[in-house]
Amino acid sequence: MSNENGKVLRLKVSRAPDGRARIVALIDGREIAVDVCDLFSDADRDRVAKVIHNACPALTVKSIQRELLIIDRENLPDADDGWDDPIDLERPDLPGFPVDALPGVLGDWVRAVANAYQVPAELAGLLALAACSGIVARRVEIAPGEDWIEPVNLYVAALLDPGSRKSAVFREALKPIRDIERERIEAEGPEIARMQSERRCRELQLKDLERKGSKDNPEAFQAMADARELSAALDAEPIPSLPKMVMDDATPEAIEMQLAAQDGRIIVAGAEGGLFDIMGGRYSGGSSNLDVFLKGHAGDDLRVDRVIRGGLYVPRCCLTLAYAVQPEVIRGLAGKPSFRGRGLIGRFLYGLPKSNLGNRRINPEPIPEGVVAAYLQLIQRLAKIDVDENGLPRCLRFSRLAKERFDAWQAEVETMLADNGLLSDLRDWGGKLCGLTARLAAVIHLVTTEDTEPWQEQLSVDAIDAAVKLSRWAIPHAQAAIGLMAADDGRLDDAAYCLRFIRSKAEPQVSRRDIHTHGRARFDRDPERLDRALDVLLDRGWLRPAESEQRAGRPSVLFDVHPKAIERLKGVI
């Protein structure tokens, strides 16, 4: 049941020991009230309805009474031996990537790549969106409102375990862009080499003039004037560089230099997430230079003052980030004030897919040639979009109906940001959600509009609806990913490791000795490490203490196992 405030009530019902109904009221999955009710008694139903209403006044007593009335009073399910639902560990049951929200060519490519490499659709989908946004970054922007302009570049991060074939999918997603880069190098390389040679000669001339100007003779004054003129000319000219559209993991300084050399835009992509180490300051004594990432996402001017190598100025720089990151890499990043406090975490579109390791098909069908060709043609078409005659990005605008749909989405997101709202604990990310939606809508519009001038056509309702669908999918994934970043040690990893072993045994009880024997290599160095992991499983309801085993020697601690932990997976061969 959902009310006008968006609160979703679910009643979890089981048979209490005395035969009445045990009612657990949950709002958006959060337990707010527990009571026992005689469902055949009008007075008792009214009493319980008021208890739930008092716990959540947004729900009316009458609406709660209706929910209590429709419960099958004659066939209450048996109580689950006193077990409450366990709290998920690192990977909650998140919604799958909505491939159907991606238009034609893009959706076909994501399905084919996910099948061919047996990877989650989240990885292929996020990389496809990043590739399309990066190829048009700084060439196109979108105006969601009168005084609101958004660039279209995206920051995406898929959180995947090792061995998930990330590198192969990165190659497939970026191959058309790298091919365009290679063709440009071949075509422009000789001319750029000539320009670089001329610049080096002029730089030598400048050094010679500066040397002559430093002497005490009549020619010195003229040499100094010539040096100033030549220095100003060199400073005003862009440094000739070979075309570069994609770069791998790099330092912030290297990214700044490439933005300056590549007309203010670059795609930075990596299958290992090394840039997150750099952004978190792991190689710089804990400090981190985040300016290029913050300004590169917003499309702001980038100014860098350097004493040794000289300063940089990049107007309206647009950076695209595409990363696959192991969960361990990002653990604890939210605790770094510079990382979360300045809003970098809130700029990513996250995907935390369920691992399919151990369930992948052998020898799946390869990507059809027609799908590869269509994706290549799409990227080539997007690459031809250029700035206008004044050197400014082309501006996309909503149709009237699309604007109404987008405004409704903004209003809904605003309620999520309120106290106790869905995004109240995630306001740094949620505050940028509508901007992300606009960027996604722009990318979808550009993909679907095959006209050579797609900026001449207004964004449709279909583009907004698809972008909103992707945005809704992104909310629980961001909650899970940022929650993982907030973890400051490895207890959750260890608890998940123990739970996998418990699942594999599929027995109603397990001993500490069994778990330790299985994980001896992991836990022997730190005897308390296993106990910390077991504490997590106890706190989250996966285990509860049982009577210790009676056997010779030192007794082992014994635990009851939650029934959900020993359910067999269905449909897996």
Remind me, CATH topology of the largest domain? Rossmann fold
Calculate Rg over CA atoms.
29 Å
Low-confidence stretches: 568-573
Report the total helices.
20
Q: Identify the CATH class of the largest domain.
A: Alpha Beta
Return the average pLDDT rounded to an integer.
85
* Residues in helices, as a percent range: 40-55%
- Indicate the structural class: alpha/beta
Biggest sheet record: 5 strands, parallel
> Outline, from the CA principal axes?
elongated
Report the end-to-end length measured between terminal Cα atoms. Answer: 37 Å
Name of the CATH architecture of the largest domain: 3-Layer(aba) Sandwich
Range of strand content: 5-15%
In what order do the strands lie side by side in the largest sheet?
A: 7-8-11-6-12
Tell me the total number of β-strands.
Answer: 16
Whole-number tally of structural domains: 3
Describe the model:
The protein has 573 residues and is of the alpha/beta class. The protein folds into three domains: 61 residues, no CATH class; 305 residues, Rossmann fold (3-Layer(aba) Sandwich), CATH 3.40.50; 76 residues, Orthogonal Bundle (Arc Repressor Mutant, subunit A). The protein has 20 helices and 16 strands. The chain has a five-stranded parallel sheet, with helices on both faces. Helix 4 packs parallel to helix 5. The radius of gyration is 29 Å and the shape is elongated. The C terminus is likely disordered.
